[in-house]
Amino acid sequence: MFKRLADSGKSVALTVDGRPVDCRAGDTVAAALLAAGVDRCRTTPVSGAPRGPYCLMGVCFDCLVTIDGVGSRQACLVPVREGMAVETQSGRREAGR
């Protein structure tokens, strides 16, 4: 889906929905998801429509994911780090999570 213009940078391993994904140090979680071919981060609570990264600068909230057990994090604002566990969100987040 997306092609990198240059191949440089240290590789970082994380998991997305339990699946291992290699990405680059310095990427945001949203950029890593897009580069790995993950085109949706969440579904909407009412209609279940899929949502993916849109603005990539923290304005739209379409890239919400669960990161290391903390839900509704904006993937476009969080830099990747080694061992990070990312989960896509389905519908409304559970209370207390």
Report on the structure:
The protein has a single domain (11-86), classed as Ubiquitin-like (UB roll) (Roll), CATH 3.10.20.440. Helices cover 7% and strands 30% of the residues. The protein is built from one helix and seven strands, in the order ββαβββββ. It has one helix at 29-35, and strands at 11-16, 19-24, 42-43, 50-51, 64-67, 70-74, 85-88. A five-stranded mixed β-sheet has the order 2-1-7-5-6, with helices on one face. It has a two-stranded antiparallel sheet with strand order 3-4.
Strand content: 25-35%
> Which structural class do the helices and strands define?
mainly beta
CATH superfamily: 2Fe-2S iron-sulphur cluster binding domain, sarcosine oxidase, alpha subunit, N-terminal domain
Q: Between the first and last Cα atoms, what is the distance in angstroms?
A: 32 Å
Principal-axes geometry comes out as globular
Helix count, DSSP H or I runs of 4 or more residues: 1
Number of strands: 7
Uncertain runs with pLDDT below 50, 5 residues or more? none
Characteristics:
globular, 5-stranded mixed β-sheet, Ubiquitin-like (UB roll), 97 residues, 1 helix, mainly beta
Provide a concise account of the structure shown.
With 97 residues, the protein is mainly β. It contains one helix and seven strands.
List the helices and strands and how they pair.
Layout: E1 11-16, E2 19-24, H1 29-35, E3 42-43, E4 50-51, E5 64-67, E6 70-74, E7 85-88
Parallel strand pairs: 1-7
Antiparallel strand pairs: 1-2, 3-4, 5-6, 5-7
